[in-house]
Amino acid sequence: MLTMSKAKENDKELAKVEEMAKTTKGLIEKILGDVSKSSAGKQIALGGASGWCTGYLAMKVGKVAAMAVGGGIILLQVANHQGYININWDKIYRKVDKVVDKVEEKATGEKAPWMNKACQFAQENSYLAAGFVGGLLIGVASS
């Protein structure tokens, strides 16, 4: 239960936070302002810094995601091979083929013959293909 003194303390803390938010917002607006009206050098520097931050964070998040997906693919393949799970590869291949065909047709307007060969190879060598994809993602994550 809040006492009067604790309630007043909370109100004071809230007021401090609100004041700090206003001050920070004002500082950011002073520094950045309307960037489109700034000099080319300032725009390039700001764009470069924000791009670097975005790229750095994307790589950090991307590495974790790639490691998780790659490891998951390899674990699924091992579990399938050991008989713990049964993956209906025909159903997966049909779904993947439909999606790949739609993407190819939208992107290029025609089907790419090399893509059909790669899909056929992956279907015939599912363990090799899944291991490759998992290893590729782990390699990206560990770079």
UniProtKB/TrEMBL annotation:
It is a multi-pass membrane protein. Keywords: Membrane, Transmembrane, Transmembrane helix. One of its GO terms (cellular component) is mitochondrial outer membrane. It holds the Pfam family FUN14. GO terms for biological process: autophagy of mitochondrion. It is found in: Mitochondrion outer membrane. Belongs to the FUN14 family. This is FUN14 domain-containing protein 1.
